[in-house]
Amino acid sequence: MSEDMTLQPSQQTSPTCLSETDSALCIVVGNPNPHNNEIPRWKPGLYIPFLAITGAQAKYAEATFKQAVKQWNESKIGITFDFVEEENDAVFTLTYGGEHNNVFAKAFFPSNQDLNRILVYSVALRPEYIMWLEWVFLHELGHVLGLGHEFALKSEKGGVRFPDEEGADGETGNTPTAPRSIMEYYHRSESATQHPIPGVQPNLMDYPEGKLPFKDIEETKRFYQLESGTTYENRPIVDYNPRKAQVYQPTAIRKATEDAEEGIDRQREKAERDKAWLQKHGKERRKPKDVE
């Protein structure tokens, strides 16, 4: 069973991202299940099909989620998310979860589970929070890729720093010159007057126009370029290749195939028309161009 990551406000109604147990990449990686000593990721090169079934309540959330997916896909980190229209084809769904106290969203780590869910809750769509929704989804998709909280190195006691950078902060994994990670946020003890949403976003100016930090892109690429079985702190990297991803035909390939088949059908139909015209009029007469 996959573990999940939950994004929710703290007791002071300031959002935080809480894991159910230990989380796991200057990024932090590792399995959130303390009984499973591994570093999970998807098999490199996979297309991960997903479906958005948010319903009328959260169409904006669906559109924003697709923008976050686009950012991760354009980063070419080794995994591609691909939108599908049928749940039977999906490895995971984005689903509207309705009311859930002050929880924003809930995600999961890579696994072979047949169907996972990212849940987005109503609080994420409130006017005071909705401007951060794309950041929330970038963060949650980080979990889906196998990334844990930057501060998990200390406070959640389950993270493995990757790569092990000299001079990196022991709690956040950030180096003095590195930008903040999308997987980092301030602790609940931060003053509500310091940040609009203390506990979730340290400073949105660290993410120009809501873009993924270069640090996260490059280090996630490096993570997915490693050989399966590579160990960090005695934890092996384990690749997951769920059944639906194995049989899935990516949208671009499927469309190219459909276009090619459609072209073949058009050529076949034209040949049949030409044959019928020749049978009717004989070979001695010149066939007009594009006889219908």
UniProtKB/TrEMBL annotation:
Residues 249-292 are annotated as: Disordered. GO terms for biological process: proteolysis. Keywords: Hydrolase, Metal-binding, Protease, Zinc. It holds the Pfam family Peptidase_M10. Residues 62-150 form the Peptidase M10 metallopeptidase domain. The keyword Hydrolase applies. The keyword Metal-binding applies. Gene3D superfamilies: Collagenase (Catalytic Domain). GO terms for molecular function: metalloendopeptidase activity; zinc ion binding. Residues 255-277 have a biased composition (Basic and acidic residues). One of its GO terms (cellular component) is extracellular matrix. This is Peptidase M10 metallopeptidase domain-containing protein.
